[in-house]
Amino acid sequence: MNNINDYAESLFQLCSENGAGPERDELDFEFLGNKTGEPYLIQTNVYKNGTGGRKMRHMLWFDPTEDYHTYSIHEGRIRMISC
User: Is Membrane given among the entry's keywords (predicted)?
Assistant: First the structure.
């Protein structure tokens, strides 16, 4: 992580059956800690056959500590939109 104030709290991980193996498939969603009062971030990463490198950070538009929230993944077709 680039910022010394960040820490990760795992929201959830979804792994293939060989999740501990070198050829694992995995989806990661992690809350990054907020010690500075800045907007909260969720960091995501995708591993396919053990290769990651798809790390992204998403700024939340709400304070996730204010209330209980339900998060979900909807499985379906991926659509690419070009602008």
Answer: no
Q: How many domains does the chain have?
A: 1
Each residue's pLDDT expressed in tens, for the chain with a length of 83 residues: 444 444 555 556 666 666 566 777 877 888 887 777 778 888 888 888 878 878 889 888 888 888 887 777 776 665 544 43
Domain span holding position 26: 8-59
Q: Is 66 a catalytic residue?
A: no
Question: Cα(25)–Cα(54) distance, rounded to whole angstroms?
Answer: 12
Which one of 9, 17, 23, 30 is the catalytic residue?
30
